[in-house]
Automatic annotation (TrEMBL):
Residue intervals of the Thioredoxin domain: 47-207
Entry annotated with the keyword Metal-binding: no
Name of the featured protein: TlpA family protein disulfide reductase
Keyword list, A-Z: Cytochrome c-type biogenesis, Disulfide bond, Redox-active center, Signal-anchor, Transmembrane
Main location (coarse class): other
GO biological process, one term: cytochrome complex assembly
Gene Ontology cellular-component terms listed: cell envelope
GO molecular function terms noted in the UniProt entry: oxidoreductase activity
Amino acid sequence: MKSFPVAWRWTLAALIAVVALAVAIWPRGARETPRAASETTRPPAAVSPGLRAAAQLADCPRPAPGAVGSGPLAGITVDCLATGGPVDLAAAVAGRPVLLNLWTYWCPPCAEELPALQRYAERPGAVTVLTVHSDPDEAKALARLTDLDVRLPGVQDGGAKVRSAVKAPAVQPISVLVRADGSVAKVVVRPFRDADDIAATVAAELGAAA
C-alpha cells in the first residue's frame, strides 16, 4: 500500500486540529455549569446541640431596655453561636463600645489571635469582645473555638453581612471597633499581636483602658 504524500499528511493533521478546536470551544448547554457546581459543593454540616454545648461559649450581649440600633450595623440579624438564636446586632451592642472580630475557622492568623482576644476580654475595663464567624460552616467554627479553648460570645455571619456593612476588605482577621453610639471608630485590617496590642488599640480608638 502506498503511503500518503507529505502534503496530504499535513492537510489531514490540520483538519484534525481544526475539529479538536471546534469541539473544545463549542457552547455547552445552560444546565451543565449548575450541575457541575452541585456535584462539587457540599452543604455545611448541621450543628448538633451537643457541639454547641461542648463549646461552652458565653451568651451573646442582650439589648438594653429600649435600645435602638444605629450606625452601619442597623438592620443586621445574625445567629448567636452559643444558642443558635437570632441577634439584632446593632441593638445588642447599642450603648457600649464593642470590638467585633471577624474570623473564619480555616484562617491560621485568626487561630493565633483569638486566644489573645480572650485574654484581653478578661482584663478589668476591657470593652465587650464579640467574635463574628464569617464562613457558612458554623459547626466547624464551634469545633475550632472548642479546640482553642476560646469562650468569647460570638455570632454566625456566613453571608459576611457585617463585613459588607462596615466596608471591610475580604480578608481575615479583621477587628471593627464600634463606639457606644453605633458608629465605627476603626477597622483594623491586621491580626493583633497580643492582649497588650489589643488594649493599646482600643484605648487609642475608643478611649477605654484595660
